[in-house]
Amino acid sequence: MEAGGRASLALLPRHLELQPALPGSTRPRVDPARRPVARNWLALWFSLEVLRSLGAKASPTIAKRCALHADLAYVLREAAVRVLRRAGDYFFQPSTYAAALRRLVEHHTHEIIGLPRDYNIVRLLEEIGEQDGLNRYVAAEHLQHVLEVYVAGHFPLSAKIEVASPEDEVSAARRACRGSASPRRSAPRAARPIPRAPAASRRRTASPRSSTTSAPAFLRDSIRTTASTGTIPRSRPACRRSATA
Amino acid sequence: MSEAGGEVAQKCFEDLDLTYYTKEELARWRAQLGGREPNHGLLGAWYLHRVGLGVLDRSADLDGFREAQGEILGMAVRAVLLHGAQTGHVSADRDPVASMLILCNEVFEWDPGRHLAPAPSSIGRSFHVMAADVPAREPRDAWIKIPSLQVTAGDPVTGELHAALLVDPAQKTWPEIHIGLQAPQRLDVPVLRLWLLKAQSLGRLLPTREGLCPTVVMRSRIDVTLLSRNLTTKELLDRVAERKALARVRPALRAWLGMRDLFDEVRTVDRNEESVRLGPLEQRLLFDDLFEWLKKIEEEAWGVVQSIDADSDDQPTSKRYWG
Question: Can you tell me the distance from the alpha carbon of B99 to that of B89, in angstroms, rounded to the nearest whole number?
Answer without folding.
Answer: 10
